[in-house]
Automatic annotation (TrEMBL):
<dbReference type="Pfam" id="PF08241">
    <property type="entry name" value="Methyltransf_11"/>
</dbReference>
<keyword id="KW-0489">Methyltransferase</keyword>
<protein>
    <submittedName>
        <fullName>Methyltransferase domain-containing protein</fullName>
    </submittedName>
</protein>
<keyword id="KW-0808">Transferase</keyword>
<feature type="domain" description="Methyltransferase type 11">
    <location>
        <begin position="48"/>
        <end position="140"/>
    </location>
</feature>
<dbReference type="InterPro" id="IPR029063">
    <property type="entry name" value="SAM-dependent_MTases_sf"/>
</dbReference>
<dbReference type="InterPro" id="IPR013216">
    <property type="entry name" value="Methyltransf_11"/>
</dbReference>
<dbReference type="GO" id="GO:0032259">
    <property type="term" value="P:methylation"/>
</dbReference>
<dbReference type="GO" id="GO:0008168">
    <property type="term" value="F:methyltransferase activity"/>
</dbReference>
Amino acid sequence: MTVTRELHAYYEQDREHARLREGRNRLEFWRTQDVLRRTLPPPPARVLDVGGGPGAHAEWLSADGYEVELLDPIPLHVARAGELTGVSARLGDARRLPVPDASVDAVLLLGPLYHLQERADRVRALAEARRAVRPGGLVAAATISRYAAVHDTIYTGAYLDERQRQAAQASMADGIMLSPARGFTGYFHDPEEVPGEFADAGFAEVERYGLQGAFGLYGDVDDWLDDPERRALLLEAQRSMESVPSLLGVSNHMLTVSRRDR
């Protein structure tokens, strides 16, 4: 991923450690876990978690019995992930994976693609993942929806601020996100772009999953997530419509999965 000075400063605030563990972002976490548990090869398989941050997903993957190596360009993230039981962590770039060809069973790109603003870099990261995974192995990549910034700023009320409103509208027009308030820089995909990037990286077919759906925009979603019984129903409801093409862009995050065919 491209670590600009602004993005490095953003992640060095240690925001990512808690992001998926609290509030409505837990829906993204649990839905990602739900999709991966259905699509990953069974443990003990070797998983390369590229751009895995401080290890929110590496932690449960290791607990499930996977052999997990995490790569991330932020030293703080690598230090945190390295403290997790069963997880090895080191600095790395999604475009130049420091692993041999066909050496892992699955590659996760749960952060890099939305920090690579140039399409050539995103295709290169996907091609590197394909190189690293064994034939038949899985590659899963997360992307942020082209409409996520407008959704989020309306949800939080930040859309009332002119600079944030303009940034959100600009990202919807061309995908380039430059947040004036948070220092977050990235690329937000139109859902229909993603299969083409996978194809150019050498993948034949993809499966697409909307993670949060419209439920991530509900004002009372925290109440559902706090209650295990209601949470299970919420996850089941989104699972029932997770791959409906017309609904993919409503999810702030999408997961695209493919397998190396040879």
